[in-house]
Amino acid sequence: MLRNLSLSILILFIARCEHKKEEAISGEMKPPNIVLIFTDDQGYQDVGAFGAQDIPTPHLDKMAKEGVKLTSFYAAQAVCSASRAGLLTGCYPNRIGIHNAFMPDSKIGLNPSETTIAEMLRSKGYATGIFGKWHLGD
Hints:
Layout: H1 2-6, E1 11-14, H2 21-26, E2 35-37, H3 58-66, E3 68-69, H4 80-89, H5 117-123
Antiparallel strand pairs: 1-2, 1-3
């Protein structure tokens, strides 16, 4: 059961980046697309690419087949806010002062001085975005 809780991060897909022949020859290789999907309370085999059969997940399965599928990826904490903070910063949540889950309208949360993976990717020319649940403070 603890393993299932620690597996709230299941899928990190790096979508396949197809390079045109002329791009490869000229040395202008584009960086790969990165799609990071973070879910709460998801078990290891809750997606078809990892063995689920009861709920179809064709789009996620296609991304797993065409991209990179990581199979040993664990959550930093068993609660959503702390897990997200660990994933986004690369730090243990306790080290950056996040021990519990924050409510959506929380005035406290992830310290703005923490560097996130999105900021690092933007510094390398990536466009970034987040959709859905945040729970790291306003």
